[in-house]
Specification:
The chain has 296 residues and is an alpha/beta fold. It has three domains: 5-13 and 207-292, Cobalt-precorrin-4 Transmethylase, domain 1 (3-Layer(aba) Sandwich); 16-98, Rossmann fold (3-Layer(aba) Sandwich), CATH 3.40.50; 101-168 and 170-203, 3-Layer(aba) Sandwich (Cobalt-precorrin-4 Transmethylase, domain 1), CATH 3.40.1010. The protein has ten helices and twelve strands. The chain has helices at residues 16-32, 45-52, 81-89, 100-119, 132-138, 173-189, 205-208, 210-220, 233-245, 279-292, and strands at residues 5-8, 35-38, 56-59, 71-74, 93-96, 122-126, 146-148, 163-167, 197-199, 223-227, 249-252, 268-273. The strands form three sheets. A four-stranded parallel β-sheet has the order 1-12-10-11, sandwiched between helices. A four-stranded parallel β-sheet has the order 3-2-4-5, with helices on both faces. Strand 10, helix 9 (233-245) and strand 11 form a beta-alpha-beta unit. Helix 8 (210-220) crosses helix 9 (233-245). It is flat, with a radius of gyration of 21 Å. It binds iron/sulfur cluster. Iron/sulfur cluster is lined by residues 15-18, 76, 99, 101-102, 169-170, 204, 206-207, 275.
């Protein structure tokens, strides 16, 4: 086999929120040489290690008050109000890198929660339980929001009450639409008032816009290498889109995960990734495929 053509997807890589958080951290590291991120700054081990070498350390909530210097970074996912209170009590300065899209969503949920309290409504969040962004969203409701991971969990919602439905920013639009319909059906079947059901598709455009683009990209190539951290929610969603469009799609975290056998009889390879995948890593992987596996 000779001359594999490798293309990197031009829309893959860090989204606006992640770029903003990493740039802020790097500026701070240039000044002080050390900084603590509350949770991994991005769901990508390779990038987390690169930044660790520059002095960015990941800490958990239990250690907020113990850091020295007394400064922590809040990543793009955001945090619930309790985190800000804990930091304030411990005299810790916060560098807040909550993505503006997430911040807006937190504010919307907070307002909806106030309305829900007045009408005995219920806040439902379509998202992954205990995911950092979801924790931040649930925190806007004094912990009272119900988190639904999939349609099988709809039974948990009391549809006789007004329902306010939101989504974690990185879920799939199809999943949200399916959930919206099932809740609407359940309200109708139980004789409830559909006018009291408010569904807000709050999926980030940086994620939903990439899906159709990635499907076209995946169809164009014999083999697709999708690069992402395993913990990345949008990585899972976007990889599934690639896999549906092209069954020869493979999920890798780093170059070592690549199996040369994937490229047998292959002429073109597409390299793409999640909103948490660094461009430099995709470039490194593309280069390796082009040089090492061409003669396989
Ligand atoms: S995916 Fe969207 S909401 Fe999430 S950090 Fe990126 S830009 Fe912000």
């Amino acid at each position: 086999m000779n001359g594999i053509e490798v293309e990197i997807d031009n829309l893959s890589g860090f989204c606006y929120g992640v770029i903003r958080a990493i740039e802020t951290a790097e500026k701070e590291l240039e000044k002080n040489g050390i900084l603590f991120s509350l949770g991994e700054i991005v769901h990508n081990n390779v990038e987390v290690n690169r930044l660790k070498n520059k002095g960015l350390y990941t800490i958990s909530h239990e250690n907020i008050g113990k850091v020295e210097p007394k400064k922590i970074l809040i990543r793009a996912h955001g945090e619930p109000p309790e985190t800000y209170e804990t930091a304030q009590k411990s005299g810790i300065e916060i560098i807040d890198c909550t993505c503006p899209v997430v911040l807006k969503l937190q504010e919307r949920i907070k307002r909806a929660y106030e309305e829900a309290k007045r009408c005995d409504g219920v806040i439902v969040i379509f998202g992954k339980k205990r995911h950092a962004e979801v924790n931040g969203l649930v925190g806007q409701t004094e912990g009272n929001a119900i988190v639904i991971e999939n349609v099988d969990e709809v039974a948990q919602i009391d549809c006789s009450r007004p329902v306010f439905l939101f989504s974690q920013t990185t879920k799939s639009s199809e999943g949200f639409e399916e959930l919206r319909k099932i809740i609407a059906d359940k309200i109708e079947q139980s004789g409830g008032d559909l006018a009291m059901f408010k569904a807000y598709n709050t999926i980030c455009r940086q994620v939903s816009g990439r899906k159709p683009h990635l499907e076209n990209f995946a169809r164009k190539h014999d083999v697709v290498i999708f690069v992402s951290g395993k913990q990345s929610s949008n990585g899972k969603v976007l990889y599934q889109s690639c896999k549906n469009a092209n069954p020869n799609s493979y999920f890798v975290e780093q170059a070592d995960d690549i199996n040369p056998e994937w490229f047998a009889d292959c002429k073109t390879v597409g390299v793409c990734g999640a909103t948490s995948t660094p461009k430099w890593l995709m470039e490194e992987i593309a280069e390796q495929i082009g040089s090492e596996f061409t003669e396989f």
